[in-house]
Amino acid sequence: MTVLFWLFAALMVLAALALIVPPLWRQRAVAAADMDGRNIAIAKIRLAELQEQREVGLLSPAQYTEQRTELELALADDLDIAAPTAAATPQSRWLVYALVLLIPLLAVSLYADLGTYQALEPTPEMLATTTPTAATPSIEQINQMVAKLAERMKTNPNDAEGWVMLGKSYKYLQQFPKAADAFGQAYRLLGDNSEVMLLYADALAFANNEQMAGKPAELAFKVLAKEPDNVTALWYGGMAKAQAGEAVEGVKLWRKLAALLPPGSQAQQETQAILAKLEATVPGGVPKEAGTAATPAPAAGVTLQVQVSLAASLQAAAAPDDTVFIYAQALTGPKMPLAIIRKRVADLPVTVSLSDAQAMLPTMKLSAFPSVKLLARVSKSGTATTEPGDLLGVIEPVATGSSQSQAIVIDTQVQ
């Protein structure tokens, strides 16, 4: 029994060391993993912004690829920098060595004074422990990281870059009042920074049902005063004038905007459509100013008329502000959209035109394929990547030479 007892006691000491020592070695590794998670979350938010800018035509495919590559390289650098911190410091190693020696000595000494092995009925058990592995953060994890960033900003209120990051994070989470507060703090610190002013105006408008009156309009026109060709400021300025009943001034701003946007892009087409509606409200029309470039006509080529509706069975699964992507794909080969238009659930049912004008690459357009697949997808996150919970409608094959209107019913939930 004595031999068995001492064997069991030795096993218990080893078990105690197994519980105490690994966390000391892992402590810095866990901190590094937490930092990696934050870096990945920030990169995910920035990538969503780049995708949105590409989809509306503000970034060309080449510009999008270049900026995405820069983002990936920056993230790789951040992860490489964080990795060495996983190594234990000399101080932590000495602490581990001391514990490995002291715990057995103390255990034996105490037992010699207090212990009695006869009272012990050993029943060994196998204990399994797992260590969480790093993964791409979920929305819940991003929420937690944003909350930590918000707490950090309370003790670092003069960190302008931190406020901008917090504002963009809240915007990504569609918490627009909080985003406006964060961008307001950045504006307080940075003053007349055009990017921050427009981010602030955008968040304020979204927090107030997309109304530009007041501070949002003031910020937009302040940017236009120093950057007359800033397309974002022109958009907000035109919206502010239209909402204020100053249609003539709104038309002038949006005409200039349409001339600056990439020819045939979705952003230009949407601006042209809104511009036409606003022009129709002005008796006698609005004469074109001298020196104002005419709005480029859409590119010629294949055009498909597409009607999109949401099935009654899925109405409860969609919110009015959820993004709807309407696009065409090749039946086989690359999944890159041949043409794409972005709407909201509140716009449904809607009829749109898909054409070569919305092609992302000259070689990947509707007219290059005899038949295509047409899709309409409700995105809960607003990003171009299909995710579980999205709502989808598909029809295929569709002849690109068809003059008939195509009807897509969004009737399936992605699992």
From TrEMBL:
For the keyword Transmembrane, the answer is yes
Q: Which InterPro entries match?
A: C-type_cytochrome_biogenesis (IPR051263), Cyt_c_biogenesis_CcmI (IPR017560), Ig_CycH (IPR056412), TPR-like_helical_dom_sf (IPR011990), TPR_CcmH_CycH (IPR056413), TPR_rpt (IPR019734)
- In Gene Ontology terms, what is a biological process of this protein? cytochrome complex assembly
Q: Where is the Cytochrome c-type biogenesis protein H Ig-like domain?
A: 304-411
Q: Which GO terms describe its cellular component?
A: cell envelope; plasma membrane
Q: Where are the TPR repeats?
A: 160-193
From the Swiss-Prot or TrEMBL record, state where the protein is found. Cell envelope
**Would you tell me the protein name for this molecule?**
C-type cytochrome biogenesis protein CcmI
